[in-house]
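Structure in, sequence out. Go:
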């Protein structure tokens, strides 16, 4: 082993490897000790907010909105029913409203509440206990009212979709009953079947005559007047 090779080995063993170990250890400790952030598929804009910075009631309301919002996005966004929302789908006003609520209005409302919360230099209870001027609600109650209004709107949209799809099922059932229980249609089907049977019998007789040309039909003495 040459002197240069030995120096490279010493550099890797006593320089690079310890530094890499310290870096990975620092990243691991930072990841473990970092606060857990909000994680909502329908509202990724809230991903920068620590869970502990919001009251339990607010997180519960956001969880409900996230679940309902995901369902509504598929119902009103996947218009061609191919299982995904893309450029092939037709954009409608309801879908745009749902997206605006989840992408803009909810994140803005949560950000406003957090600013109110951060104004308190004490224990941070200002937004939860102090009434907003010219109103009878606190900052926390105002945010919960906003989320409750959106929650109610989403419930109405889900109920409307349920009844609309239910009416489609009822209409399909009525059509099938008329199609298969219609006596006129049944008579036509029966007449068509009898006609097919008659044609089949005639075909058998013709085939028999062709196969047995000596059979010329009944004899004169067999015919009774």
């Amino acid at each position: 082993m040459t002197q240069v090779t030995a120096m490279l080995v010493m550099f890797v063993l006593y320089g690079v490897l310890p530094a890499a170990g310290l870096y990975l250890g620092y990243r691991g400790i930072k990841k473990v000790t970092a606060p857990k952030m909000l994680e909502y598929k329908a509202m990724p804009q809230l991903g920068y907010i620590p869970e502990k910075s919001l009251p339990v009631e607010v997180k519960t309301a956001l969880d409900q909105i996230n679940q309902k919002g995901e369902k509504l996005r598929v119902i009103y966004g996947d218009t061609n029913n191919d299982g995904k929302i893309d450029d092939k789908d037709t954009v409608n006003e309801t879908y745009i409203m749902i997206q605006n609520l989840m992408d803009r209005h909810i994140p803005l409302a949560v950000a406003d509440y957090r600013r109110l919360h951060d104004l308190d230099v004490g224990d941070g209870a200002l937004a939860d206990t102090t009434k907003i001027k010219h109103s009878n609600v606190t900052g926390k109650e105002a945010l919960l009212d906003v989320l409750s209004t959106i929650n109610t709107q989403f419930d109405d949209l889900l109920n409307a979709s349920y009844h609309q799809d239910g009416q489609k099922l009822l209409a399909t059932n009525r059509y099938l009953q008329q199609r298969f229980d219609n006596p006129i249609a049944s008579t036509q089907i029966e007449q068509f079947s009898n006609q097919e049977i008659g044609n089949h019998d005639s075909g058998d007789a013709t085939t028999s005559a062709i196969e047995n040309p000596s059979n010329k039909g009944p004899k004169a003495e067999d015919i009774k007047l």
